[in-house]
Amino acid sequence: DVIDLGVMVPAGRILETARESGADLIGLSGLITPSLEEMRHLAGEMEREGFELPLLIGGATTSRTHTAVKIEPQYHGPVIHVPDASRAVGVVGALMDKDRRAAYAAGIRGEYETLRRERGARQEKIARHPVAGARRRRLAIDWTAVTPPRPSFLGVRTIDDQPLDELVDRIDWTPFFATWELNGLYPAILSNPVVGEAARSLHEDALALLDRIVRERLLQARAAVGFWPANSVGDDIELYTDETRRGSVGTIHTLRQQMVKPPGRPNLALADFTAPRESGLIDYVGAFALTAGHRLGALVTAFEAAHDDYSAIMARALADRLAEAFAERLHEVVRRELWGYATDEAALTNEDLIAERYQGIRPAPGYPACPDHTEKGPLFDLLEAEKRAGIHLTESFAMLPASSVSGYYFWHPQAAYFGLGRIGSDQLADYAHRKGMPVDVMARWLSPNLADD
Question: What is the distance of C-alpha 154 from the center of its chain?
């Protein structure tokens, strides 16, 4: 039997339920970065309260290495990372077999100990600048050579009902197949000698349901998009009510890479892509929040009521793909029309878009360049995302409906995606101070990016 407690369940309730039900195992699944710290905390609580049950770790944000380094040391009982649902049966079978459990758990513990040693050795080799030194190595843009383009409007606008038929051609199908654990690039996966037949069948089913979703308007897509005058101030980006820059509407807090790089390679922060206030230039930054998930709940419920779990899963996967396609389509409209900094942009194929062969970027809070999920709070306030697009944030800053995307727009030709990597305690303290948050709270949100210094 499986007792599903739902989402965002406190550790105390999980452990209380495990005791009351006489559970054999506890399983945790994490979809966003803060879940990782919750898992570590729960493992520590299991240790403190004297549990012996195996703890299974899974979900999109988890990894074998993170489980070995951050979670397993908190608890003496078996802690096992399960990379996908198909592996759960084998793992649970081994843990429930009295003759196999001890040897299986000991083998996993040995593997995790090896991972910790290897990671520790690698971390020792990674040199990092102090945050002040990293800032001296920021990206040097010649702001005297450009005039920041002014968007066609300032403030926020609403897209109430984006036509779904405009999104179909922008769908990136490769992640769709990954959802079903069929790995390979689309369209090549359709002719793959191993998984091609299964991929073709799945794709045909998806297209049939997608056609029905579009024709019958079974899903609704909505968005909020906005632009503001802006300047960088250190590693922050100030947003203003108008070009006089006398009134502020908010601040985007960004983080800077601290790893030592070869000569000529800068230590990046998103603030580098916006003109510094001291340049005298008035620059601009955009933002968006969008969803293709409205009405999805009713559609899924109808499939489940008909005992059609396959179509329920398919509907969720297609809603996710439509949301990403909406983000791609909206960015295209921003570049060519709403901001208009690339009005002469050539027609781009889906392959061009996937390869990001266009000017500008749309990084999202919680992702590699800006991994702090708490930045979604001020972003959603700025966009009035709940009122305009019907998207709200949970306490852990997950977006609901789940098939939603949010982020910023940067226009500069040198703006590029990057991974933050690990930061030192000096930048953590500085960042927490700038945000007005306690250092320990900020450390919890940024735990996957903290160096062991």
Answer: 27
